[in-house]
Amino acid sequence: MSLMEHAACAASLLAVDPFGLGGVCLRSSAQPARELWLRLLRESLPERTPWYRIPSNIPPDRLLGGLDMAATLKAARPVAERGALAAADGGLVVIAMAERMSAHTASLINGVIDSGQVRVPRNGVMIEHRARIGIVALDESEAGEDPTPPSLMDRLAIVLDLQGIDPRSTVRGVHDRESIAAARRLLPFVRATPDMMEALCGTCAALGVSSPRIAWLALRAAMVSAALDERTDVAGDDAALAAQLVIAPRATQLPSEETPRDEPSAQAPADQSPADAGASGPDTSPRDAVDARVLAAARAAIPQGLLVRLESAHPSRSRSPAAGRAGALRAAGRRGRPAGSRAATGRGRLHLVETLRAAAPWQKLRGGGAGERVRIASQDLREQRFKVRSPTLTIFAVDASGSSALNRLAEAKGAVEMMLAECYIRRDTVAVVAFRNSSAELVLPPTRSLVRAKRCLAGLPGGGGTPLAAALASVAALAWQARRRGETPTIVMLTDGRANVARSGVAGRAAAHADALAAARALPLCDALFIDSSPKPNPLAREIADAMKARYVPLPRAGAGDLSGVVRAAVRAGAGL
Amino acid sequence: MPRVSRQNYPFSAIVAQEEMKLALICSAIDPAIGGVLVFGDRGTGKSTAVRAMAALLPPMRAMAECRYACDPDDPDGWCDECRDRGAGNKKKPRIVAVPVVDLPLGITEDRVVGALDLERALSQGIKAFEPGLLARANRGFLYIDEVNLLEDHLVDLLIDVAASGENLVEREGLSVRHPARFVLIGSGNPEEGELRPQLLDRFGLSVEVRTPAELRERVEVIKRRDEFERDRGAFIETWRGADDKLRQRIVAARKRLRDVAAEDAILEKTASLCMQLGTDGLRAELTMIRAARALASFEAAHSVEVSHLRRIAPLALRHRLRRDPLDESDATARVERAVAESLAS
Question: How close does chain B come to A404, measured CA to CA in Å?
Answer without folding.
Answer: 21
